[in-house]
Design goal:
Layout: H1 2-40, E1 44-45, E2 50-55, E3 59-60, E4 69-74, E5 78-79, E6 85-86, E7 91-100, H2 102-105, E8 109-119, E9 122-125, E10 128-132, E11 137-140, E12 148-151, H3 155-198, E13 206-207, E14 212-217, E15 221-222
Antiparallel strand pairs: 1-15, 2-4, 2-14, 3-13, 4-7, 5-6, 7-8, 8-9, 8-12, 10-14, 11-12
């Protein structure tokens, strides 16, 4: 009888120890899962994020050349998926990747590429494109994701319009005075006058120092944990 009781007590003790062991293991696994949960969420600024920057340098389609380096500063904080903040004032470096001078095409264009950005963990690669620029500029995203910037108005276009208007006026005056031959002479003279009056064959695109540019991330900006 005493042996039977001892066996029962031993079995109960082993069962209790097993249950305690399983509970400990389950608790440890849960704690490990809790610890690893935050690391499962990458610390990044998502692509598609818009933010304003200010140019530290002047960019001009007539003065600058391809690969001209420039810098800019962020004007807005960038928040990561983990709640971290990159405060305003972060320096961005970039370069001019393509230029079409207004003197050649009548409508100046610039393509800007942004290379990297300063963070509290050092420089990080930055893949962003120009979304918009306040003022008389048009921005058209290209396949290269650089963003084509052009002047909305074109002196080249106005030159042609002015020349056409001058030619029409000259032709009317010449035709009234000397017939068909006079009309041809008057058209030529009027065209030259209209061209000279418009002064120039193209308007260069100028982005002064301090110009605000709205950028949009085309790739996530991965921040160190």
């Amino acid at each position: 009888m005493r042996l039977k009781f001892s066996s029962w007590a031993l079995g109960a003790t082993v069962l209790a120890m097993s249950l305690g062991c399983f509970a400990y293991i389950e608790s440890a696994l849960a704690a490990q899962a809790d610890d690893s949960a935050p690391s499962a969420v990458a610390n990044l600024v998502p692509n598609g994020t818009h933010f304003l920057v200010r140019l530290d340098d002047e960019l001009n389609s007539g003065k600058n050349r391809v690969n001209k380096k420039f810098s800019a500063r962020t004007l807005e904080p960038l928040q990561t998926t983990r709640g971290g903040i990159l405060p305003p004032g972060a320096k961005i470096r970039g370069h001019v990747s393509r230029i079409e001078p207004g003197g050649l095409t009548g409508r100046a264009r610039l393509w800007l590429t942004f290379d990297d950005i300063d963070t509290h963990r050092g420089r990080l690669p930055l893949v962003a494109e120009v979304s918009s620029i306040p003022g008389d500029y048009a921005v058209r995203p290209g396949e290269s994701k650089e963003g084509e910037i052009e002047a909305r108005t074109s002196k080249g276009t106005r030159d042609l319009e002015a020349a056409a208007a001058g030619a029409a006026i000259g032709a009317a005056a010449g035709g009234a005075a000397h017939g068909a031959k006079g009309a041809a002479i008057g058209a030529a003279a009027g065209g030259v006058a209209g061209f000279v009056a418009s002064s120039g064959i193209g308007q260069e695109l100028d982005l002064p120092k301090g110009t605000k540019i709205d950028l949009v991330l085309d790739r996530p900006l991965y921040m160190a944990p």
